[in-house]
Design brief:
The protein is α/β, with parallel strands linked by helices. About 30% of the residues lie in helices and about 20% in strands. The chain has a domain of about 190 residues: P-loop containing nucleotide triphosphate hydrolases (Rossmann fold). It is built from 8 helices and 10 strands. The chain has a 6-stranded mixed β-sheet with strand order 6-7-8-3-9-10, sandwiched between helices. Strands 2-1-4-5 form a 4-stranded antiparallel β-sheet, covered by helices on one side. A hairpin with a 2-residue loop joins strand 4 and strand 5. The longest helix is centred in the middle third of the chain and has 17 residues. The radius of gyration is 20 Å and the shape is globular. About 40% of the residues are buried. The structure holds adenosine-5'-triphosphate and magnesium ion. Magnesium ion binds next to helix 1.
Length: about 300
């Protein structure tokens, strides 16, 4: 059974712009999803070695793992942009279709069309056949949601990286996805903008219910945003609960990655970034990624 997800209080939404929020047309329904023994090989090389994961409707699951470990592949398979070599992937109990319309994907780069305004770029994400007035209302609602009402008529080259990424998020939300897939969405942003975008994503999630699968290399981000954090690793990591010393380097990557660890993150969002429980989990997850946080710093002036 998928885990129970705490309901996000919608009263938490802080409007990013002044004035009254536009009504949200056609509110999305967050959808549950499941990977069952999903494998993916390319030319005889196994990348995903049997992924089992259930995500409840409305949950935010963050994914960590080694570079080249198949995180993007996992998202692409769920979005119907790639096919698994084996196993089953389903959304709300039915198999994923090619370019599954129930999913929307956001990437590290905003991928906006430079000759179109931000409003026009957001409109590109709308489902087909929407009446003109409904479309305009939805675009304006989404721009307000991500704090870009004032920049609606600007073009991508005229706005900051953070603003472009916010427009990209609005475009992904335009089709009311039941599942939102985000592949290192804030990876190219500076540290401060990144923190603001994390808060924005939580506001958006509270206001536009959707299930979120977010890949990141940032352990703090994973803990700040996720109801659960999924750590991908080699089969050896999973057998021994990802403790140090468990890894047989000769096996690394041979069988593809699996879910090595799933961590339920304590505390309601927004979380206190200084929470001691998070610091503990951070060290555990870093160890799972092969980073030793207990290494002594080099001594500059060793005792005589
Ligand atoms: N279409 C493809 N054809 C051949 N190999 C592929 C294809 N797509 C992905 N791969 C390989 O699968 C492996 C996993 O790629 P993927 O992009 O999913 O990793 P990742 O975990 O997202 O890495 P990173 O953290 O660097 O983004 C890589 O070795 C990649 O070269
Ligand atoms: Mg990737």
């Amino acid at each position: 059974m998928p885990p129970t997800v705490p309901t996000t209080p919608t009263t938490r939404l802080t409007p990013l712009t002044s004035g009254r929020a536009a009504p949200s047309p056609a509110v999305a329904t967050a959808l549950p999803l499941a990977f069952e023994q999903v494998t993916r090989s390319y030319g005889g090389r196994t990348v995903l070695g049997g992924i089992d994961l259930e995500v409840a409707a409305g949950e935010i699951v963050t994914i960590l793992g080694p570079s080249g470990g198949g995180k993007s592949t996992l998202l692409r398979i769920l979005g119907g942009l790639d096919r698994p070599s084996g196993g089953r992937v389903s959304i709300a109990g039915s198999p994923v279709a090619p370019y599954d319309p129930r999913c929307a994907i956001g990437f590290q780069e905003p991928r906006l069309l430079p000759w179109r305004t931000l409003a026009q770029n957001v409109a590109l994400g709308l489902p087909r056949g929407l009446a003109k007035t409904d479309a305009a209302q939805r675009v304006s609602h989404l721009l307000e949601l991500v704090g870009l009402t004032h920049a609606a008529e600007q073009r991508p080259r005229e706005v900051s990286g953070g603003m472009a990424q916010r427009a990209s998020l609005a475009r992904a939300l335009a089709r009311n996805p039941g599942v939102l897939l985000l592949d290192e969405p804030f990876g190219a942003l500076d540290a401060l903008t990144r923190l603001k975008m994390q808060d924005l994503l939580l506001d958006v999630h509270a206001n536009a219910p959707t299930t979120v699968l977010l890949v990141t290399h940032d352990v703090d981000e994973a803990l700040q945003l996720g109801d659960r954090v999924v750590l991908l690793g080699s089969r050896g990591d999973s057998r021994s609960d990802s403790r140090e010393g468990s890894r047989d380097e000769s096996d690394e990557g041979q069988d593809g990655t699996v879910v090595a660890r799933v961590v339920a993150v304590p505390g309601e969002r927004p979380r206190d970034r200084g929470d001691a429980r998070l610091a503990h989990l951070r060290a555990e997850l870093l160890a799972g990624l092969g980073i030793d946080t207990h290494r002594n710093p080099p001594q500059r002036n060793p005792p005589q």
